Inverse folding.
């Protein structure tokens, strides 16, 4: 247990004791007052209980430290959200402390009881979580239930009590004298704060309801089945646990260790890696910038370590390394399914759905120019899309074969490929509902779909049987999928796209599975090209023009009042400069943008980094590689997280951000892919020299404004959410403001 943990345990226990004392005093007061005066009068007398007022003031004021805890990174709470929650309590505390009218009405008692009951179990829960090291499964269930259930009753009662205190204080001349003037007190407590509560309270309650649902789901989640296929190694023989962090650190350390043993050792010794991994990633990329040889050595060493450290577990529980598993052919084989599309209308060249319209031809070129001029996409991405418009033959896919690993992915190009008559080789999970959708799409298209089957297609009499026997598992069937693809359509060139995505540590496993397949196809099957979608939330080498634009935006936005206020409130934790200092190296200097979102975690970054490593290695061996940055996209998996959805709505405030719909992202990224496959001048073509292999990701970037934004994406989330809610509230604030002005003028005697 660290000193920080000890401090937080002591803090939470002290607060718990304080609120318990307040609650006990309030209950004792009620027990004496209700028989004599009735419940309403007894509630009105709660605050007058001896020493309760002082204890309430100091205990609630201690919550200001929670803002400090969040600001300095002691806890994971968002700074702005924490500050807003504490501030609302402080406003109510001032009212009940300095307004006799607020103290002596029933709402004060309701507020005190509600606050104390919520806080007793909240602080007790936090302390227990720190002691047990687990906030979901190891805390006693009664405490867990109370923490995540009491809010349903106590939030509404507490808010009701706070509002009564606001209104009583607003009309109390004693409080008015304390609070600068009665007019100011009236405006704040009778107009502004109630208005904020009306619109803010439902969001607060719904957010807690969402937290409850998530916490209960985690606590009662079924234990995972025994590992099969690609799995993290066992790190504790006694428990059989397979932790991702040690593996994550070891792979990154092995990678950078190929050129710097000092940095490798720092990674291995890193504490709190979940929150410090970004600096080690920066160190790795800086080492890759030193020379092309260093870049490739690091990439190869990282992948080699992954192949050696990950296990491939057989159904009988025995295991070998992934390298060993992929070194031999399997005795089991897939059959091949085939669907010929019955569609008659093939898409006429490149089309991009955008905001309710379909852009093509000159209209598409005009919109691309707007995106480039605004800075939402890089010029090279614009040139690639326009190239597809000017060369319609690039979009004739009737003789092209695309292997889609994760065919049903929301960000994959399946729909675009089928609409252009491509031959799609679909690899996705063996789940009937998945194949009902995929095969249905193929039948309606002008393309074809080939897919793995567990039985011969001729023996399957119904669609239900076909859907049930289709598909495979990238984790458990990795060698079988590789063998099936190696023998499929001999003589045809494959473009193999890695599009499968899973959450958390599973993302690393599925990325390694896809890599094991693409490695052998790119090295052993002539004519194979690779395709990846890079995330904007990563560390990238960018063109100097993008770096300069970000610097200029940083200077401009730092003058905006909102940005100044947010920086001050967060103590510099928010709105950090997006770009890093230039890195010297052979062929440099190189310019970097830090798009990493720490909340995504080291597993997400490792999964994407392994794709980067394979991309530069494959290109160095003569393989065409299309690996371009996609924009932030409002996919269902993202927008289901309410905070992300709110942030997405507010992010366009920061020029030149734009959040794209999935159908737009699919189309534009497909266009850039087609350009990479057809344009001999593309950066993905190995015949074109790059100063550093990682510059592969500097071109064709449709990053949605991430690169040229003033601030790191990880530092604009809270501000974006605030902007979103301010926009929603703007019409109501205008009406409320007008009413407040009218009332204020009346109070001041102007009419």
């Amino acid at each position: 247990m660290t000193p920080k943990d000890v401090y937080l345990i002591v803090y939470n226990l002290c607060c718990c004791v304080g609120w318990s004392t307040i609650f006990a005093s309030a209950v004792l007061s009620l027990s004496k007052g209700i028989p004599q005066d009735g419940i309403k009068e007894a509630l009105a007398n709660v605050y007058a209980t001896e020493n309760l007022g002082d204890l309430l003031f100091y205990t609630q004021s201690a919550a200001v430290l929670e803002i400090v805890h969040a600001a300095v990174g002691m806890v994971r709470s968002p700074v702005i959200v924490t500050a807003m929650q504490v501030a609302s309590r402080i406003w109510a505390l001032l009212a009940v402390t300095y307004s006799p009218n607020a103290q002596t009405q029933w709402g004060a008692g309701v507020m005190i009881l509600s606050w104390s009951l919520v806080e007793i179990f909240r602080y007790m829960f936090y302390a227990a979580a720190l002691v047990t090291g687990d906030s979901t499964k190891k805390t006693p269930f009664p405490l867990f239930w109370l923490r995540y259930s009491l809010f349903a009753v106590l939030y509404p009662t507490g808010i009701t009590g706070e509002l009564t205190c606001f209104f009583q204080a607003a009309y109390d001349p004693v409080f008015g004298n304390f609070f600068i003037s009665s007019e100011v007190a009236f405006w704040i407590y009778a107009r502004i704060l109630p208005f904020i509560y009306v619109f803010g309270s439902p969001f607060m309650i719904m957010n807690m309801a969402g937290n409850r649902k998530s916490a209960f789901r985690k606590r009662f989640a079924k234990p995972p089945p025994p590992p099969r296929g690609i799995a993290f190694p066992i790190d504790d023989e006694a428990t059989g646990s397979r932790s991702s962090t040690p593996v994550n650190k070891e792979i990154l350390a092995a990678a950078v260790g190929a050129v710097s043993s000092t940095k490798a050792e720092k990674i291995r010794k890193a504490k709190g890696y979940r929150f410090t991994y970004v600096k080690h990633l920066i160190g790795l990329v800086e080492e890759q910038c030193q020379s092309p040889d260093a870049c490739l050595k690091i990439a190869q060493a990282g992948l080699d370590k992954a192949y050696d450290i990950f296990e491939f577990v057989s159904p009988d529980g025995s295991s070998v390394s992934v390298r060993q598993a992929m070194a031999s052919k399997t005795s089991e084989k897939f059959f091949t399914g085939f669907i010929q599309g019955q569609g008659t209308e093939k898409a006429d060249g490149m089309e991009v759905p955008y905001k309710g319209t379909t852009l093509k031809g000159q209209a598409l070129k005009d919109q691309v120019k707007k995106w480039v001029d605004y800075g939402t996409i890089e010029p090279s991405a614009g040139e690639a899309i326009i190239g597809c418009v000017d060369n319609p033959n690039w979009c004739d896919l009737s003789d092209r074969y695309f292997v889609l690993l994760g065919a049903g992915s929301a960000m994959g190009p399946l729909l675009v490929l089928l609409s252009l008559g491509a031959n799609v080789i679909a690899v996705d999970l063996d789940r009937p509902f998945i194949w009902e959708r995929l095969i249905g799409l193929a039948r309606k298209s002008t393309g074809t779909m080939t897919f793995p089957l567990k039985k011969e297609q001729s023996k399957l009499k119904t669609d239900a049987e076909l859907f049930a026997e289709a598909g495979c598992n990238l984790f458990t069937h990795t060698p079988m999928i590789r063998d099936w693809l190696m023998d499929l359509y001999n003589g045809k060139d494959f473009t193999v796209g890695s599009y499968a995505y899973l959450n958390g540590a599973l993302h690393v496993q599925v990325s390694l599975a896809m890599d094991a397949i693409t490695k052998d196809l790119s090295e052993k099957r002539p004519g194979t090209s690779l395709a990846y979608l890079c995330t904007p939330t990563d560390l990238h080498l960018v063109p100097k023009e993008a770096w300069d634009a970000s610097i200029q935006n940083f200077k401009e936005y730092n003058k905006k009042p909102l940005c100044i206020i947010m920086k001050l409130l967060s103590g510099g934790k928010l709105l950090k400069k997006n770009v890093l200092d230039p890195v010297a190296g052979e062929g440099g200097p190189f310019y970097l943008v830090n798009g990493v979102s720490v909340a995504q975690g080291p597993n997400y970054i490792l999964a994407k980094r392994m794709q980067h490593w394979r991309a530069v290695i494959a290109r160095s061996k003569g393989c065409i590689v299309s690996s371009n940055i996609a924009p932030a996209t409002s996919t269902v998996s993202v927008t289901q997280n309410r905070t992300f959805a709110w942030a997405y709505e507010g992010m366009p405030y920061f020029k030149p951000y734009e959040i794209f719909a999935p159908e737009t992202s699919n189309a534009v990224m497909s266009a850039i892919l087609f350009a990479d496959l057809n344009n001999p001048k593309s950066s993905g073509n190995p015949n074109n020299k790059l100063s550093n292999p990682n510059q592969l990701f500097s071109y064709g970037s449709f990053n949605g404004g991430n690169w040229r934004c003033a601030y790191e994406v990880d530092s604009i989330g809270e501000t974006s959410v605030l902007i979103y809610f301010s926009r929603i509230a703007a019409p109501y604030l205008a009406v409320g403001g007008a009413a407040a002005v009218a009332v204020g003028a009346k109070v001041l005697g102007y009419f």
About this structure: The radius of gyration is 30 Å.
